[in-house]
Design brief:
CATH superfamily of the largest domain in chain A: Ribonuclease H-like superfamily/Ribonuclease H
GO biological process, one term (chain B): RNA catabolic process
CATH architecture of one domain in chain B: Beta Barrel
Number of domains of chain A: 2
Low-confidence stretches of chain B: 1-8
Oligomer: heterodimer
Distance between the termini of chain B: 41 Å
Helix content of chain B: 10-25%
Pfam family, one (chain B): RNase_H2_suC
CATH topology of the largest domain in chain A: Nucleotidyltransferase, domain 5
Number of strands of chain A: 9
Radius of gyration of chain A: 24 Å
Order of helices and strands of chain A: EEEHHEHHEHEHHHHEEEH
Strand order of the largest sheet of chain B: 3-10-7-6-5
CATH class of the largest domain in chain A: Alpha Beta
Mean pLDDT of chain A: 86
Enzyme class (chain A): hydrolase
Largest sheet of chain A: 6 strands, mixed
Shape of chain B: flat
Distance between the termini of chain A: 44 Å
InterPro entries (chain B): RNase_H2_suC
Strand order of the largest sheet of chain A: 1-4-3-2-5-6
Largest interface: A-B, 48 and 39 residues
Strand content of chain B: 25-35%
Shape of chain A: globular
Structural class of chain A: alpha/beta
Order of helices and strands of chain B: EEEEHEEEEHEEHHH
Mean pLDDT of chain B: 82
Number of helices of chain A: 10
GO cellular component, one term (chain B): ribonuclease H2 complex
Amino acid sequence: MGSEAAPPSLPEWTSEPCMMGIDEAGRGPVLGPMVYGCLYCSISYKDTLSSLKFADSKTLKEEKREELFENLKSNVSIGWAVDIIDPRELSAKMLKKTKINLNEISHESASGLVARVLDMGVLLTEVYVDTVGDPEKYRIKLSERYPSVKFVVAKKADSLYPVVSGASIVAKVTRDQAVLNWVLDETAENMHKKFGSGYPGDPATKAWLDDHKHSVFGFPTLVRFSWGTCTPYFKKLAEVLWESDEVDEEGSSSGNRRQLKLTSVGITGYKRKSEEIQSSGKGRCKFFETRKLEQLTRF
Amino acid sequence: MNREKESSEIPQNGIIGSIDLKSDESIVDLTDKIHQLPCCIKYNGPCSVSHYFKPKQTGVDVEGLSVEEACFRGRKLQGTKITLPQGYSGFVLGKKKIAGKRKSEGVSEENSNHWEMRASFQSIDYWNHDDVPSQSDAFYRCLHWLPAANALHKPVSASDLTHASTLFGVKID
């Protein structure tokens, strides 16, 4: 999780009651990081903030967004911070043995920003949060965690509250720059960076996915493997079975579950009939059973 | 027990196989390149592993194991390198090419049990999905078999026997 924050020396206005907006960028795309951004200022600055013409970042042109971001960075009456959630982290969490869904990841990120700004010593009293999920549940969750703060959670908050519009600019510009400057982990030849917007419907993104699919590895780690967009691709690539994805045996009413056999020591490609049944060393003495060592007469 | 007929030398109650561990200097050394993943990849063949699979040291030690991190198909893997004990090597085996004469006897490479070494290695990186590697991992504990097997198969000398007899209070003539 990368992060960046305003300089540590706190301006005086932070000891006045402050408001903060939180918004996200890059929730939908199949590739790249998801970014949570926040922008805060003293409540007495509210009217001036409204005059700065922050609008929902999606309605602004790229250059305009970048210009506004530069302006707010140099504005001493405004503070901001971002939380960059790496696509590897998104994939890993959503594909954990106990899966974590995108809403939970989002909530933790937003909550982390509140904690970070409070820890810096900013007197936050009002926080406005944009959400795609159920606003009330989310509001209760945040209010319980930070009782001193009044939370307003709303859909489309980025177009309703200037402080959230500002946060959306922080998030969107940071996400765009992160994708633009992305250094692919993979070193295979013929890789390129024409990612497009990253949205599954974007022809440039589709073309990039087609150009970078790999029969064994799937995709470069820039891609969010947990996205539904990837599923049709995986069907055409080498199948990969995980121990954590238990396979139901036909007529599993008996509760009989087949566990994938992946732990036998023999690292051979030989296809045995029992390929998908876990090596257990069953029937052998305890020493072998606990180590799942079975005897092979053929490999 | 597999009773498939392979060649005339096969006894009725077992199978015979051979493994040819040639000591050719041209043998590929795959030390540091052998990975045991917690999944089954339904693919056999060459693959540009080092371009895609990039393990990183975390700098964290768990139970004396130095933890590495990697990802595969979006999953986070945590693993550690096991160096094979002194006196042991790992081998990649392939079916031994069958000479022309035996082919005529209807023996195909497919069902032969004769193997030859294609590569050797001195270390394995084994990986867990999500979990940090631990000395209680079944894969790690498999290595316990090596000293156990040694102890079981070590030739017993006369002095060992005398020692054992005094230990257990049994007199051996």
